[in-house]
Amino acid sequence: MRRFHRQGMLRQGLRRLVRTPAGICGLVLVGIVVLAALGCHWLAPFDPADQSATMGIGANHAPAWSNPLGTDRLGYDVLSRVLYGAPTALAVGLGAMVVASLIGVAVGGIAGYAGGWTDELLMRLTEFFLVIPVFLVILAVVRLFSIVVVGTWLETVPHLSLMTIIVLLGVFGWPPIARLTRAEFLRLRHAEFVDAARCIGTRPSEIVVRHILPNAMPGIVVVIALGIGSAVLSEAMLSFLGFGDPNAVSWGQLLFFNYEQLKIAPWSSLAPGIAIFITVLGFNLLADGLSDAFNPRRRQ
Asked: Residue 50, class by beta-carbon neighbours within 10 Å (0-12 exposed, 13-18 middle, 19+ buried)?
């Protein structure tokens, strides 16, 4: 019965999501980014490493039929590199939130369900991570790790720097998820259906996984959607400062390479900047739409 009830709540929430302006705009913008990431190999007119434009129309060329968004200072096609930057952005956003969700849901779920000294200990740990200057720590760790791996077998691992950034963003991005998960577990652990499950002898682990967690997920998903946009923006800032993966095409990396040419060729910086804006705005609007759709006060 609870399973069918949850499925009904999910269907109702999704129907409300597509009826909200924020939800529709968020879905459209996120859908554009996802399509660009999945179809970049077919949509991009050039390979991201192709500098043949230098031999033709030249570097820093304005948008033209052959290069719809122009070329940058190195002769790369801007449109192609922006499209190939979409998979990197989604990999960072989704990967970081997978790591953050696993840690945050585990910590918040244990704290909210167990209570007592366990709750106090885990919440103090969460508060400790909240006051850490995350961005500075990630900059230091990425730089230190890039030095340590030189000359080791780790240096041959493809996109190691990008994977390091994803893990670090996830490891330091779990506290908001943990706090919301704890609040949801505190709200639901004394609900009638949970008490009924205890009365029939259901194990605590099964109560958490099958009864409490599914009912807490709508609120958690909202925080995760916000976190995806935040992770994309953080990776762009890291790449803009020169701490990104040099072997991956990143929007922040494109800004780093072309910001000095802003007066000469503004299109090479505006295009990746707009891509970052669309992605972050899309996930933020999607989170806003999810919040409205799954708000218990709006359920009829």
From this structure: middle
State the residue for tokens 């989704």.
94
Question: Residue 165: which of 249, 233, 96, 102 has the closest Cα?
Answer: 96
Q: At what angle do helices 21-38 and 267-293 cross, to 10 degrees?
A: 130
The partner residues of 77 in beta bridges, in order of sequence, read 71
How many alpha carbons fall within 13 Å on the CB side of residue 120?
2
Question: Could you give the domains of the chain?
Answer: 13-57+66-298 (1.10.3720.10)
The pTM for the full model equals 0.88
Short-list 11, 4, 2, 3, CA closest to 299? 11
Taking only the tens place, the pLDDT of each residue in 41-74 is: 999 988 888 877 666 677 888 888 888 898 888 8
Per residue in 253-295, pLDDT (tens digit) is 999 988 888 888 899 999 999 999 999 999 999 999 888 777 6
DSSP state of 63: P
247-286 burial, b for 16+ CB within 10 Å, e for fewer? ebbbbbbbbbbbeebeeebebbbbbbbebbebbbebbbbb
Q: Which of 286, 294, 300 is nearest to 22 (CA)?
A: 286
Q: What whole-number distance in Å separates Cα of residue 99 and Cα of residue 173?
A: 9
Tell me the β-bridge partners of 71: 77
Where do we find the tokens 């919440």? 123
DSSP label at residue 61: P
Chain centroid to Cα 47, Å, comes to: 26
- Give the Cα separation of 74 and 59 in Å (integer): 6
What is the b/e burial string over 198-231, where b = at least 16 CB atoms within 10 angstroms of the residue's CB? eeeeeeeeebbeebbbbbbbbbbbbbbbbbbbbb
The answer for residues whose C-beta is within 8 angstroms of residue 275's C-beta and 6 or more apart is 33, 82, 85, 86, 89, 251
In 3D, which of 55, 83, 57, 85 has the Cα closest to residue 71?
Answer: 57
